[in-house]
From TrEMBL:
Name of the molecule in the record: ABC transporter ATP-binding protein
Lineage, broadest ranks: Bacteria, Pseudomonadati, Pseudomonadota, Alphaproteobacteria, Rhodobacterales
Organism: Pontivivens ytuae
Record-annotated membrane-spanning stretches: none
Keywords in alphabetical order: ATP-binding, Cell inner membrane, Cell membrane, Ion transport, Iron, Iron transport, Membrane, Nucleotide-binding, Translocase, Transport
All residue ranges annotated as the ABC transporter domain in the record: 19-250
Molecular function (Gene Ontology), one example: ABC-type ferric iron transporter activity
Length: 389
């Protein structure tokens, strides 16, 4: 059976989202755990719902699967409404494949029985699909083995074959690789992705690991406290974070504080333009340790400011650690004693107390108004203009 059959003869279009969540909310005991969530998954696209523990990722996935109903909003599959607060079709009618961390193969069924479990076609067709899938996941000839005779990675492959068997239009995966050790995880993750892409399945993968999302996703939907705060390609999300918290979700960040004056902000690293913000607004300049440069502080040949790296600021080494293929140097800054971190490729282990100058890639620095700033009531200029109208 193919996905079109499962969707009641609806033709699966390449231009209609396979899965759409529109303004979905979910309340538990009066508390809203998913808020106004809108998301569309296109065929063959892997979307990662990424966010910290408890932000509502699994709840969103369960609503997409049909295990739970939305309190508000609707779910559409291939353009057809399958759930709103008054009605929610069960998972069987949705053409969704499910893969969870606890992949729970049926222990009393052999591998072939597990893979064939969701198939309703004739015996010969079933056998053909099972062989095809076992070959696809690298387990040809494992048909008669039982789950307890398989390694964790092999069990995971069987779970994938089982989920793919009915050719679901959508695959919903909740931390499916977290039970595997690192090397196996990378391998299985990549293989799984290749298979899902080949099958043209739209994938929604829940994870709290930024590395996993960056590695797997065509599109990341970053969630926080029940809401999607940013959606985009991994590169975009990483290089253009929507705020400090979004930046800090992917790596350590350095933060330098400043106050807006005449649409710009003076810092020990030079001036930053801060258009749209009112005088007196507190801002933070956020940059990743990877985007820092360190130089020795030579009085006779001082480091000059450049367009790319701006003005260097002085500090002394507080700590240096070797991290494998790079070194992490923590610098106590002369201007305020704060610690800023720099990641330097290769081995760079200066002694504690060594004077260094730190500069940053200005094109990778982000300026955000402080979230809990107190100096002005509202940092945005437009509000002041609107109020004056
Ligand atoms: N059945 C339930 N009844 C009451 N509260 C629930 C229920 N399911 C989830 N919650 C709450 O909803 C919030 C979101 O939970 P959810 O499992 O969706 O988060 P998550 O982002 O997937 O977290 P994790 O990464 O830890 O699995 C949490 O505060 C959780 O305690």
């Amino acid at each position: 059976m193919n996905p079109s059959d499962l969707l009641g003869k609806a033709v699966l279009s390449e231009t209609i989202p396979r899965l759409e969540l529109r303004d979905v909310c979910r309340d538990y005991e009066g508390a809203r755990v998913v808020s106004d969530l809108t998301l569309a998954l296109m065929p063959g696209e892997v979307t990662c719902l990424l966010g910290p523990s408890g932000c509502g990722k699994s709840t969103t996935l369960r609503i997409a699967a049909g295990v739970e109903a939305p309190t508000h909003g609707e779910v559409r599959i291939a353009g057809r409404k399958v759930a709103d607060p008054s009605r929610s079709e069960p998972p069987e009618g949705r053409s969704v494949g499910l893969m969870f961390q606890d992949f729970a193969l049926f222990p009393h069924l052999d591998v072939a029985g597990n893979v064939a479990f969701g198939l309703t076609c004739g015996k010969a067709e079933k056998a053909a699909r099972v062989s095809e899938l076992l070959a696809r996941v690298g387990l040809a000839g494992y048909d008669a083995k039982y789950p307890h005779q398989l390694s964790g990675g092999e069990q995971q492959r069987v779970a994938l074959a089982r989920a793919l068997a009915p050719r679901p239009a959508i695959m919903l995966m909740d931390e499916p690789f977290s039970g595997l050790d690192n090397r196996l995880r990378d391998e299985i993750r990549d293989e799984t992705l290749d298979i899902l892409r080949d099958e043209g399945t739209a994938v929604l993968l829940v994870t709290h690991e930024p590395d996993e999302a960056m590695r797997m996703a065509d599109k990341i939907a970053l969630m926080r406290r029940g809401r999607i705060v940013q959606v985009g390609a991994p590169y975009t999300i990483y290089t253009n974070p929507v705020d400090r918290e979004a930046a800090a979700f992917f790596s350590d960040v350095n933060v330098v504080h400043g106050v807006v004056k005449d649409r710009q902000t003076e810092t020990p690293f030079g001036l930053f333009l801060t258009p749209g913000l009112v005088d007196g607004a507190d801002v933070e300049i956020v940059f990743r340790p990877q985007h820092c440069r360190l130089d020795f502080d030579r009085q006779e040949a001082p480091v000059r400011p450049t367009v790319e790296h701006g003005v260097p600021a002085r500090g002394r080494v507080a700590r240096a650690r070797f991290m494998g293929n790079q070194s992490l140097v923590e610098l106590a800054m002369d201007h305020d004693g704060s610690i800023l971190k720099a990641v330097i490729p290769g081995v760079f282990m200066p002694r504690e107390g060594t004077p260094l100058v730190l500069s940053l890639r200005r094109d990778h620095a982000h300026v955000f108004p402080c979230v809990n700033q107190s100096r002005v009531a509202d940092p945005w200029e437009r509000h002041v203009e609107q109020a004056a109208e």
